[in-house]
Amino acid sequence: MLILFVCAIGSLWIDNLYAIYQGIAFYMDGQQYIRAAGISGDVIALGGFLLIYLPIFFLLVQDEKFKKRLFVYLGLTAVGLVALVFNGTRIAWLVAGILLPLSAILYGKNIKKRVGCLVVLYLIAGGIAYQFPFIAERIHSFVDVNNISNQGHYLIKASTIEMIRDKPLLGHGLGFYPEVFNAKYISEETKRVENHISHAHNDTLLIWAETGIVGIILFWLMFGSFLFFSFKSWYKDRQIEDLMFFMVTLAAAMHGVTDTRFGMHQVMKMYFFLMAVYLKYRYNVYR
Question: Which whole-number Å values give the CA distances from 232 to 62, 186, 228, in the listed order?
Fold first, then answer.
């Protein structure tokens, strides 16, 4: 299990290094819009991988059991943070910015010191960000109502809600979202942003539109149970592995607010693979 875990996380680390190389190359080439995609070539997928990678190493940095390897884990965390900056996925920035201090609070040791260090880190990061136009532009775009991406997300979600209203109980059929949406629900405003829509940019809306209220209830029962039982195990036994899985699952759920995380097969395959390793670890430890 350790070998499998190291190989999985090691592959994400290599992906991060390549993303950093891409980001530096784009910057040196004078590009103002930098979106490093990593080895897969998928910008959003790399953001999803980073939300698996970063909580794990950030928690390892805090765990006293791994004190001898502190600088190694600090270095691995730094690689992930730099890759996150060059990736430029706004929701990944936001989720990471929320989850890192949350993990320090949940870990429950030297909270003031850890949160204080994070505040200093955020202030430094903010100062650096405004030295680079592409980072500042991405930050400003969070609240820019004229931003094309923001407008597109809003229009797509509004039309998806119309889909749900038409068939709220059973939905339009699993996997039929693109066909039905583009045939009946895409608006002229949306077409000016993007001609063909493949997903709803929101896991909840997408699954509700396809599978109805029964499907979305089961979907959230699934993710809710992952969150509930991993947090319950962390609260009871204080094993860092439980908190890791809780934070990675919470990251997956939060990322699904503006992207269709569940449909990104490469990211979710990694997630469920690590879940399998986690469950087998718990079975071996507690049986």
Answer: 20, 43, 6
Name the residue range of residue 195's domain: 144-287
Using the structure block, give the residue that is written with the tokens 């991993």: 230
Q: What is the pLDDT of residues 90-102, one digit of tens each?
A: 888 889 888 888 8
Last residue of a domain, one of 116, 143, 170: 143
Residues 6+ apart with CB under 8 A from 263: 199, 203, 206
pTM of the model: 0.86
Same-domain pairing of 88 and 171: no
Q: Which two tokens stand for residue 110?
A: 């030297």
The answer to whether 65 and 240 have CB atoms below 8 angstroms apart is yes
- Interval 238-251: pLDDT, tens: 888 999 999 999 99
Q: Distance between CA atoms of 120 and 177, rounded to whole angstroms? A: 44
Report how many domains make up the chain.
2
Tokens of 115: 């949160």
252 membership: H or E segment, kind and range:
helix 240-255
